[in-house]
């Protein structure tokens, strides 16, 4: 159940009740592709840094260790020791990213494992079955993510097929949730809006999937090569055609600035690999922009990554020490940077929720964006 608590312009502050707890939105989901956050971050750490939702990947867990093994281990929550909500993506994005290894048909997609090259077939039913075995809180519908520069005729055919696949996902999800041996019989299903950067295709698709009365809706196929302006424009034209009274999820986005802009356009779920990926390379987010801790100027810097930050890294260690760890290729350096970045994102979402509740979101966004432009002056 999704309940809007406050609105400020198009920005929404809501609560989404699930079988694994209530999600306060807007929310940033911390990405743990293979049931782990890259950078040696444990689920116990995730609680300490304020994570609400963990996101795992259907394709990667199907390939290794195997979704049937996860089911035998009691489902993803038990497997990774996480008792809060988990969202699993459908494998659809891998259809996009493994373009050289795939073959798309009406039934589904055949592609080769990136690990050992063995053939995998995944269609709507298989994706739902894998996600049911994983027993995540929210399952994503199986879709094709067309390239943002694809021809119009290709995008039209792809989106029409994604709609047909969505109907099959919904039917299969209902069947799986009714089975006796299903771990999570309350698994939720989110549909995905596609259409590259064609306004009319996006709008028509949003209207079509809105009629299917799903648990939530995602905007997919953005942040895959188009400009930020194009992405914001697509959100401007598409989000108003998705149900207001259901969660709206912008997949794979993004930078702190992207999130601030998308919240202003009515989006309330986000995920992105940036905080963990950048953290592993010594790039850390602060309210003054991004810092590269490999820079020589931090060698003797005794200050934390960001003064006033309450993350485990900033409470205990200096920029100089973390820089040394990174230079020495000590895993602790990566871990501390990832913890800081995820804490920064989670804290920003908490501030966003408060700003919307207090009716000052525009002012908050402006102040935050101006701060980011200071970029490494300190």
From TrEMBL:
EC numbers: 2.4.2.29
Root EC class: transferase
Stretches the record annotates as RNA binding: 252-258
Keywords, alphabetical: Glycosyltransferase, Metal-binding, Queuosine biosynthesis, Transferase, tRNA processing, Zinc
Keyword ATP-binding: no
Pathway membership, UniProt: tRNA modification; tRNA-queuosine biosynthesis
Classification via InterPro entries: ArchSynthase1/Queuine_TRR, TGT, TGT-like_sf, tRNA_ribo_trans-like
Note on how the cofactor is bound: Binds 1 zinc ion per subunit.
Cofactor(s) of this protein: Zn(2+)
One Gene Ontology term from the biological process aspect of the record: tRNA queuosine(34) biosynthetic process
Catalysis performed (reactions): 7-aminomethyl-7-carbaguanine + guanosine(34) in tRNA = 7-aminomethyl-7-carbaguanosine(34) in tRNA + guanine
Molecular function via GO: metal ion binding; tRNA-guanosine(34) queuine transglycosylase activity
Residues forming the catalytic site: 89, 271
Pfam families reported for this sequence: TGT (PF01702)
Binding site residues for substrate: 89-93, 143, 194, 221
Residue intervals of the tRNA-guanine(15) transglycosylase-like domain: 10-370
Protein name: Queuine tRNA-ribosyltransferase
Biological source species: Blautia faecicola
Gene: tgt
């Amino acid at each position: 159940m999704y309940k809007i608590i406050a609105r400020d312009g198009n920005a929404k502050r809501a609560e989404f009740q699930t079988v694994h707890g209530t999600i306060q939105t807007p929310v940033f989901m911390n990405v743990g592709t293979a049931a782990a956050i890259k950078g040696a971050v444990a689920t116990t750490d995730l609680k300490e840094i304020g994570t609400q939702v963990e996101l795992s990947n259907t394709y990667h867990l199907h390939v290794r260790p195997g979704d049937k093994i996860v089911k035998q281990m009691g489902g993803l929550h038990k497997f990774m020791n996480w008792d809060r909500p988990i969202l699993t993506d459908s494998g659809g994005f891998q259809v996009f990213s493994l373009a050289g290894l795939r073959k798309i048909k009406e039934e589904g997609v055949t592609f080769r494992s990136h690990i050992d090259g063995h053939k995998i077939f995944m269609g709507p039913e298989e994706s739902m079955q894998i996600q049911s075995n994983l027993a995540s809180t929210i399952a994503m519908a199986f879709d094709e993510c067309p390239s943002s520069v694809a021809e119009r005729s290709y995008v039209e055919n792809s989106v029409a097929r994604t709609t047909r696949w969505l109907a099959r996902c919904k039917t299969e999800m209902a069947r799986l949730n009714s089975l006796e041996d299903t771990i999570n019989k309350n698994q939720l299903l989110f549909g995905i809006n596609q259409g590259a950067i064609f306004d009319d295709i996006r709008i028509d698709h949003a209207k079509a999937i809105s009629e299917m009365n799903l648990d939530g809706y995602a905007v997919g196929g953005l942040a895959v090569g188009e400009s930020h302006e194009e992405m914001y424009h697509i959100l401007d034209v598409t989000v108003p055609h998705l149900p207001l009274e259901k969660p709206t999820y912008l997949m794979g986005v993004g930078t702190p600035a992207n999130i601030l802009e998308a919240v202003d356009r009515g989006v309330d779920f986000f995920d992105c690999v940036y905080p963990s990926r950048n953290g592993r390379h010594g790039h850390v987010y602060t309210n003054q922009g991004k810092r590269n801790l490999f820079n020589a100027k931090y060698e003797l810097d005794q200050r934390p990554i960001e003064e006033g930050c309450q993350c485990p890294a900033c409470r205990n260690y200096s920029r100089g020490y973390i820089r040394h760890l990174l230079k020495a290729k000590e895993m602790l350096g990566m871990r501390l940077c990832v913890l800081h970045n995820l804490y920064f994102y989670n804290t920003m979402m908490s501030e966003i929720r408060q700003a919307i509740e207090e009716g000052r979101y525009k002012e908050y966004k402006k102040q935050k964006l101006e701060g980011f432009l200071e970029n490494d002056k300190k």
